[in-house]
Automatic annotation (TrEMBL), chain A:
GO terms for biological process: steroid biosynthetic process. Belongs to the 3-beta-HSD family. This is 3-beta hydroxysteroid dehydrogenase/isomerase domain-containing protein. SUPFAM superfamilies: NAD(P)-binding Rossmann-fold domains. The keyword Oxidoreductase applies. GO terms for molecular function: oxidoreductase activity, acting on the CH-OH group of donors, NAD or NADP as acceptor. It comes from Phlebiopsis gigantea (strain 11061_1 CR5-6). It comes from the Eukaryota. The keyword Oxidoreductase applies.
Automatic annotation (TrEMBL), chain B:
The keyword Signal applies. InterPro entries: Isoprenoid_synthase_dom_sf, Squ/phyt_synthse, Squal_synth-like, Squalene/phytoene_synthase_CS, Trans_IPPS_euk-type, Trans_IPPS_HH. PANTHER family: FARNESYL-DIPHOSPHATE FARNESYLTRANSFERASE (PTHR11626), SQUALENE SYNTHASE (PTHR11626:SF2). One of its GO terms (molecular function) is squalene synthase [NAD(P)H] activity. Residues 1-17 form the signal peptide. This is Squalene synthase. The lineage of its organism: Eukaryota, Fungi, Dikarya, Basidiomycota, Agaricomycotina.
Length: 348, 497
């Protein structure tokens, strides 16, 4: 019996690509649940609702006859602690409870590579790393709690669960990473480099991340040869091609047709001093600083993961290189930002 | 170096002076003529002395590296090298007509074992023509090698002569001077260098100094050779082009994207790269060539990790670290298109002194990868790929020799960097291993008492009380038996006397 899929957060970046890939591989029963209505292929059933509302969620699961839930919905950094916990922990709790009640057999949860992040360098981290005693921020804390909740549920009355810790998602339809990086280019700040750019960083092209979700879902069938390696496990997912921090934005700018003429390197120490001043000025003026000490610290960190476990258990081998991902992302951005592109061509 | 140049160096580059002085003071060279070493070096035979002489002639620095390999392996590698050198001299010789060259090359594995075989028809300009004129010395020495060595040498000679003959035939009959595809470039490098690596692995295994499995690590051995060969091919651009020898594949240098990046058409001829006005486009091609070579770096590191003999390790590792240093020297260096460039003597000496274990070698690779990356700018069409390949080298280091482990120094045990999350996991593992080791030791100790073994065979936990019980019983049994036999013997003696 083929699975019936319900993608929670199907209108989001990752959820949308998961839906696309499910439809593309010929799944006949695919549904989306999201607070925002999205535009989908006509074969996809759409449910609009809030995961914080258990009744709405339960209705969608019942109506769609879901046997496999892929839970990609999440509230990103920058919201209040209360909101972040409500959606990311409370919402996930609802998903788990509804899955139990409705006898769903598979639950794939989208976690974050930062659940083990403690604020310092993290080269080549793998799944043996423990959760930090004190989470780096509310978002990471909430994601870690929710992940443990999902993994703990594995094995409950035929429900199998898995958690995918994705790192640095980007791609077409991205509303965070790519536009932010392109924004730096448009405001002519692309020639500035903070730090020595020796710190490696990890990214994941969105279609690779979506593919990992499908692979994980398939391996949650108890008769799958790799079932035991996957059920109840957490996996780091990235492109497996760490590279120095600044190379990623430069790659995107270049793909959009812009190469900084000259690079001004600002050592980390000096950048910290500038950040303090900018924070002070912003505090006095009551505005938001463009450069904070947190940003400087973050930019100069080494952070990448070891995806061998996913390679072995999920047979996850990224289909698209970062190079290709950058090309596709820039193309999408250019097609959706014609004015910016025109402005860029003028100034070049 | 004369006294004056030492003095100049001291004044201009004191740091380099120090390194070279250290190198000169601490780095011993093997003297192959020492009588106590004759069984290994064969210096007591005229034929072998001649072979050592030819080795010194072809390359002094390389000869020194070969001589450092332990025991008889240095002599075997010397002979292996001379065979390949002989083959190479014939292949390079432009004065030989194709038919003659084909026959010579394709039969070289037979000639090389024919007593008295020499070849006197090399062109007068061939640097190593004298080696072939006196080749009977090499034949004589080869025939003395044990079969396991000789088999490897003959096998590689057969493969290499076929490859070289194919290339020579193609060049001399079709008039095509360039390698077209990257695959062709890889195959060419395989014949002239990858096979050398394959043969060396075979010799290391045959010597018993390395595991038997090493001989079958063909892909890694090939990468070792390719990494060196490609580095030389890149560095020697100008010399080769001036001599009309073209090894760079057209798929790279003739790619229009490097022209498009500066608004020019693709290069039509290789020599265009050193002409004025083409600097930027040539630089992009150079980056692409270096990127191609860097793709073999992690394979090389994998290979080096498999070695266990120190002298074999040094022999393999030193050329590799020199190669990555050379790639760094060439990267974005316009001089490479104009003249022969070389890493500085002090840098080379430092690399030789540091290339002593796989961890240090990996960190040397990482350092140079970071330096190469730092020189790379976003306008370069290979920019993203270079970042990826440099990142791969760095990740290799973290996979195999993670940075949170501070190496043991001065009698201190290794320590873990407490700020790194991996330390906590490693600490748990470490404790676990230590406990397991202690447990094993305890069991071994118990086993030596013999009694404990019996107890374990019954599937019981050997406690101290059990051990005591067994010892007591065993003691009683032994006492009873000995007393019994003494009594029996006395009884017998009594009866028969």
């Amino acid at each position: 019996m083929p699975d019936s899929y319900l993608v929670i957060g199907g209108s989001g970046l990752l959820g949308g690509h998961v839906v696309d890939q499910l439809v593309a591989r010929g799944e006949t029963s695919v549904a989306s649940f999201d607070i925002a209505p999205g535009s989908f292929d006509q074969r996809v059933r759409t449910f609009v609702g809030n995961i914080c509302d258990r009744a709405e969620l339960e209705n969608a699961v019942k109506e769609s006859g879901a046997t496999c839930i892929i839970h990609t919905a999440s509230l990103l950094q920058g919201k209040s602690k209360e909101q972040v916990y409500k959606v990311n922990v409370g919402g996930t709790e609802n998903v788990v409870e509804v899955a139990k009640a409705q006898h769903v057999s598979k639950l794939v949860y989208t976690s974050s590579a930062s659940v083990v992040f403690a604020g310092s360098d993290q080269p080549n981290v793998d799944e043996s790393a423990p959760y930090p005693a004190k989470a780096f921020d509310d978002y990471n804390a909430a994601k870690a709690i929710a992940e443990q909740l999902v993994l703990k549920t594995n094995g409950y009355q035929g429900l199998s669960t898995v958690s995918l810790r994705v790192a640095g998602l980007f791609g077409p339809r991205d509303r965070v990473t790519v536009p932010t990086i392109m924004g730096i280019m448009m405001s002519k700040r692309s020639g500035m480099q903070i730090g020595d750019n020796k710190n490696l960083f990890d990214w994941t092209y969105i279609e690779n991340a979506a593919q990992a979700h499908l692979l994980a879902a398939d391996r949650l069938s108890p008769d799958h040869a790799k079932y035991k390696l996957v059920a109840g496990e957490a996996f780091f997912i990235s492109n497996g091609e760490p590279r120095p921090y600044w190379d990623f934005p430069r790659g995107l700018w270049k793909a959009a047709g812009h190469t900084p003429k000259k690079i001004t390197v600002i050592p980390k120490g000096i950048a910290m001093v500038i950040a303090v001043i900018m924070e002070l000025v912003a505090w006095i003026r009551g505005s938001e600083a463009t450069l904070t000490r947190f940003r400087v610290h973050y930019i100069c960190l080494t952070r990448y993961c070891n995806i061998d476990k996913a390679r072995n258990a999920l047979d996850y081998h990224p289909l698209f290189s970062i190079d290709e991902g950058i090309r596709r992302s820039a193309e999408y951005w250019m097609s959706t930002h014609p004015e910016d592109v025109a402005k860029l061509r003028e100034t070049q | 170096m004369g006294a004056l140049s030492w003095l100049v160096l001291l004044l201009t580059h004191p740091g380099e002076f120090r390194i070279l002085l250290q190198y000169w003071l601490w780095h011993d060279q093997r003297d192959v003529s020492v009588p106590s070493d004759h069984a290994n070096t064969g210096w007591d035979r005229d034929t072998m002395r001649r072979c050592w002489h030819f080795l010194d002639l072809t390359s002094r620095s390389f000869a020194a590296v070969i001589k450092q390999v332990e025991d008889d392996l240095a002599r075997v590698i010397c002979l292996y090298y001379l065979v390949l050198r002989g083959l190479d001299t014939i292949e390079d010789d432009m004065t030989l007509p194709d038919e003659k060259k084909q026959l010579l090359l394709r039969n070289f594995h037979k000639h090389t074992l024919t007593p008295g075989w020499t070849f006197t028809e090399s062109g007068p300009d061939e640097g190593d023509r004298q080696l072939l004129v006196e080749y009977d010395n090499v034949v004589e020495e080869l025939r003395m090698l044990k079969p396991s060595y000789l088999d490897v040498i003959v096998d590689i000679t057969k493969k290499m002569e076929a490859g070289m003959a194919d290339y020579a035939h193609k060049a001399q009959t079709t008039g095509s001077v360039y390698l077209e595809k990257i695959e062709e470039y890889d195959l060419y490098c395989h014949y002239v260098a990858g096979l050398v690596g394959e043969g060396l692995s075979g010799l290391f295994s045959a010597s018993g100094k390395e595991g038997e499995f090493l001989a079958s690590q063909l892909e890694l051995a090939d990468s070792m050779g390719l990494f060196l060969q490609k580095t030389n091919i890149i560095r020697d651009f100008r010399e080769d082009v001036d001599d009309q020898r073209y090894f760079w594949p057209r798929e790279i240098w003739g790619d229009e994207k490097y022209g498009a990046a500066v608004g020019h058409p693709a290069f039509q001829e290789m020599k265009e790269m050193h002409l004025a006005g083409n600097e930027k486009q040539a630089e992009y091609v150079q980056s692409a060539m270096i990127l191609n070579a860097l793709c073999h770096a992690t394979d090389s590191l994998d290979y080096l990790r498999l070695l266990k003999n120190q002298s074999v390790f040094n022999f393999c590792a030193i050329p590799q670290t020199m190669a990555i240093a050379t790639l760094h020297l060439c990267f974005k260096n316009p001089d490479m298109f104009q003249r022969n460039i070389k890493i500085r003597k002090a840098e080379a000496a430092q690399l030789i002194m540091r290339s002593k274990n796989p961890r240090d070698v990996a960190y040397i690779f990482k350092e140079y990868a970071q330096k190469i990356h730092a020189k790379c700018t976003a306008d370069d069409p290979s920019f993203i790929k270079i970042a990826a390949v440099c990142g791969r080298i760095e990740k290799w280091c973290e996979d195999q020799y993670p940075s949170f482990v501070n190496m043991a120094t001065g009698g201190q045990a290794q320590t873990f960097d407490t700020t790194d999350v991996r330390s906590r996991v490693a600490q748990i593992l470490d404790d676990h291993q230590r406990k397991a080791w202690l447990e094993k030791k305890r069991e071994e100790l118990l086993r030596t008492t013999g009694a404990a073994t019996t107890a374990r065979e019954k599937g019981e936990e050997a406690t101290a009380a059990d051990t005591f019980k067994f010892v007591a019983i065993a003691f009683t049994v032994v006492t009873v038996i000995s007393l019994g036999s003494v009594f029996g013997i006395m009884l017998l003696l009594d009866r028969f006397t």
